[in-house]
From TrEMBL:
Keywords: Chaperone, Coiled coil, Mitochondrion, Transit peptide. The gene is KNAG0A03050. It comes from the Eukaryota. This is GrpE protein homolog. GO terms for biological process: protein import into mitochondrial matrix; protein refolding. Essential component of the PAM complex, a complex required for the translocation of transit peptide-containing proteins from the inner membrane into the mitochondrial matrix in an ATP-dependent manner. GO terms for molecular function: adenyl-nucleotide exchange factor activity; protein homodimerization activity; protein-folding chaperone binding; unfolded protein binding. Belongs to the GrpE family. It is found in: Mitochondrion matrix. Its main location: mitochondrion.
Length: 232
């Protein structure tokens, strides 16, 4: 009876101890739980780190693509500007050429207008110069010697004629006296012909009216008499 009581007491004591002490498997599970969690976090971290280079590469590729697009856009804009520059340069050169041509044409027109105005003015003066020449030819040598007044008048008319001729020369107007020259229809106007044995046919033996040129261009041909050919 006492032995039974002792065994019962041991069972009760053992049961009372069991709830307080966890099984070995439970203790192992609880001990390894933090390590498992840490391992899972570590594995997850490695996975994240393994993905980062791909993400960086993708971002870099995107940035590179954007930069390439910018470069392409800038190159296209540069090409457009270069074409515009070539077009503007061509237009400028054409405008300069047109302006220079216009300058040349305008200059020629102005020169022609000046020459025409001067030519008309010169022709009007030539008649006065001719009249001075006719006046001088009217004086007789004996009258110049007899009268001082007539001599002074002759000198005055002669000086006035010379002033007119000098003024004409300053403006490129030169008189043409073809006496003794071969007849040139571009410079001379034949008013009559006369046969002379001692002179070459076709030469000028008499000047009826002096001719004049303006800058080497005939503005009035000289009126002349030429030697006639005996065979004509």
């Amino acid at each position: 009876m006492r032995a039974f009581s002792t065994a019962s007491a041991l069972r009760v004591a053992y049961r009372s101890v069991l709830p307080r002490t966890a099984p070995v498997s439970s203790r192992i599970a609880r001990a390894t739980a933090p390590r498992a969690s840490a391992f899972r976090l570590s594995v997850r971290g490695y996975a994240d780190e393994a993905k980062k280079p791909e993400e960086v590469s993708t971002e870099e590729a995107a940035d590179l693509t954007a930069e390439q697009q910018k470069i392409k856009t800038l190159e296209e804009q540069l090409e457009t500007k270069e074409k515009e520059n070539v077009d503007l340069k061509d237009r400028l050169l054409r405008s300069v050429a047109d302006f220079r041509n216009l300058q040349g044409v305008t200059k020629k027109d102005v020169e022609k207008a000046k020459a025409f105005a001067l030519q008309k003015f010169a022709k009007d003066l030539l008649e006065s110069v001719d009249n001075f020449g006719h006046a001088l030819g009217a004086f007789k040598e004996e009258d110049l010697k007899k009268s001082k007044e007539i001599s002074d008048l002759y000198t005055g008319v002669k000086m006035t004629k010379e002033v007119f001729e000098n003024t004409l020369r300053k403006h490129g107007i030169e008189k043409v006296d073809p006496l003794g020259e071969v007849f040139d229809p571009n410079k001379h106007e034949a008013t009559f012909q006369y046969a002379q044995k001692d002179k070459e046919p076709g030469t000028v033996f008499h000047v009826q009216q002096l001719g004049y040129t303006l800058n080497n261009r005939v503005i009035r041909p000289a009126k002349v008499g030429i030697v006639k050919n005996d065979d004509a």
